[in-house]
Amino acid sequence: MKHEYAVVYEKTGTGYSAYVPDLPGCITTGATREDTERLMREAIEFQLSGMREDGLPIPEPTTEVGMLPVESAA
Fold first, then answer.
1. Helices marked H in the chain — which ranges?
2. Mean pLDDT, residues 1-9
3. Total domain count, the chain
4. pTM, entire model
5. Is 28 within 8 Å of 46 (Cβ atoms)?
6. Residues of the domain holding 12
7. What are 46-70's pLDDT values in tens digits?
8. Is position 69 within any domain?
């Protein structure tokens, strides 16, 4: 079964960090957005693999993301 999880990317002073709200503890960091995306894919696969090995249920994705335009004060 294929799942599609929301990933939150945050720019940091040294690159990027990322986490998956539906998979607590699934986090990573990288020097570039591309590095962080690659590392996050590996982190998700690793976490899900461990959950399967331990006989734990794989959580269904429930987090929804969106962007809201707002006016900023000048």
1. 33-53
2. 91
3. 1
4. 0.87
5. no
6. 8-53
7. 999 999 999 999 999 999 999 999 9
8. no
Q: Amino acid letter at 32?
A: T
Ramachandran region, residue 35 (left: φ > 0; alpha: ψ -120 to 50; beta: rest) = alpha
Residue 46, beta-bridge partner list: none
Assess whether pLDDT exceeds 80 at residue 74. Answer: no
Backbone dihedral angles phi then psi of residue 9, each to the nearest 5 degrees: -105, 135
CA dist list (Å): 24 to 16, 18, 31, 41, 72: 18, 12, 22, 15, 32
By CB atoms closer than 10 A (0-12, 13-18, 19+), residue 6 is middle
What type of residue sits at position 2? Answer: K
3-state DSSP assignment of residue 51: helix
Structure token digits, residue 57: 């249920």
